[in-house]
Amino acid sequence: MQTFKTFFKISKKHLPSCILYLGIYVVIMILLSFLAQDSNDSQFQASSLDIGIIDCDESKASHALTDYLDEIHTIVPLENDGEVIQDSLFYRKVSYVLTIPKGFEKELLDGNSKNLIQTSKRKDSASGYFLDEQVDQYLKTMRLYLCSGDSITDAAKHTADSAKDIEKVTSLSFEKDHSSSDNLYYYFQYMPYILILLLTISLAPILIIFRKKDIENRMDCAPVSPTSKGLALSMGCALYCLAVWGFFIIIGRIVYGADMFSKNGLLCILNSFVFLLFTLALTLLVSTFSPNTNVLNMIANVVGLGMSFLCGIFVPQSILSDNLLQVSRFLPAYWYVRITNMFGSYSAEPFSMNFYWKAIGIQLLFFVAIFAIYLVANKQHKSGQIFVPLNKIFSAESN
């Protein structure tokens, strides 16, 4: 019991920094989840751009095309001068410049489809390519009406009517609450990185204090059995981790409401708890080497960022190469992300309870493996055998 009380007395000294980390990470997670959702929700929204149109034909067809684009975008007057056009694009006065050459209407009536117009756009902007598609679609539709026997005036009217119908795009969701479900998905998506960083930086220093030679010798002299001491430390670590993990769950409940404890939410909570076990085992293993604060920060960032980029936490697994994914299969975060992908509406991962339990089981195997290595390392640390050189390196760096 005395060891247990001492554990939390030491943890109180680290409480301010822990609260600071918790606050920063929670704010970042919530912001990332909502920002990611907002970007996905707006992917089908049409945008009005500043464009320039230089009409050298001055015909009914060219005027119809100008009027059509004027309804969608903002037309900025420009001189028919190459230098002026380039400057306007460079200084972002316009995003796109359309030049309608002389003879445009005649070529359109003759059925020609090549080199009807000339365009200038910035190479680093996708807006120009979107406008190319708009103009090309308009001209194709107009040619169809002209081929059917319509006059220029009628073809322009029918094309404009058709284009208005095309512009309206509806995004369908197959979920009851699309927005909140995806926000919850992003909230859990980033949790592994935060758990690894937070526990390694805040829990490991507490355990390292108990591993100092003088403190270990003093505790060995006390009337406390090694089993009792180990049990007290284990209970302290377990309660510490549960407190950190529970804090994130409570914050999720406050922010996302009842969705946190829906069926999908509970499955995500279980997934995060299993990953918490792995993170705890990893923290215990790191503490056996008694690194200083700088080394702890380095380990936390290398492991946390490495898993995040390799396993699909920061970069979606769908755009990672197959070879990289084959390597990341040997990391628990890969299986964690595979589960969260099943609950995101923007992922192609199909939902399967069989695969869910398979991924949970694999993460538990990682926990068992790392914990077994920790037990061996802890035993060797006490005997001062295999891990003496590493401990000397860490102690040298601290000096």
Structural overview:
Keywords: Membrane, Transmembrane, Transmembrane helix. It is a multi-pass membrane protein. It is found in: Membrane. This protein is mainly α. It has 2 domains: 258 residues, no CATH class; 118 residues, abc type-2 transporter like domain (abc type-2 transporter like fold, 3-Layer(aba) Sandwich), CATH 3.40.1710. The chain contains 18 helices and 4 strands. A 4-stranded mixed sheet has the order 2-1-3-4, sandwiched between helices. Strand 1, helix 3 and strand 2 form a beta-alpha-beta unit. Helix 12 packs antiparallel against helix 13. The longest helix has 31 residues. It is elongated, with a radius of gyration of 31 Å. The two termini are 33 Å apart.
Question: In brief, what are we looking at here?
Answer:
The protein has 399 residues and is mostly helical. Helices cover 70% and strands 4% of the residues.
Q: Tags for this entry?
A:
mainly alpha, abc type-2 transporter like fold, 18 helices, 4% strand, elongated, disordered C terminus, transmembrane, transmembrane helix, ABC-2_transporter, membrane
Instruction: Quote the distance from N terminus to C terminus.
Output: 33 Å
Structure annotation, total helices: 18
Strand order of the largest sheet: 2-1-3-4
Q: Calculate Rg over CA atoms.
A: 31 Å
Total domain units: 2
User: Which overall shape is indicated by the principal axes computed on the Cα atoms?
Assistant: elongated
Weakly predicted, low-confidence segments: 40-46, 167-179, 386-391, 395-399
Describe the largest sheet.
4 strands, mixed
Mean pLDDT value: 79
Helices and strands: which structural class?
Answer: mainly alpha
Number of strands: 4
Helix content: 55-70%
| SSE ordering | HHEHEHEHEHHHHHHHHHHHHH
- Tell me the β content: under 5%
Organism: Maccoyibacter intestinihominis
Protein name: ABC transporter permease
Transmembrane segments: 18-36, 190-210, 231-252, 264-286, 298-320, 355-377
Membrane topology: Multi-pass membrane protein
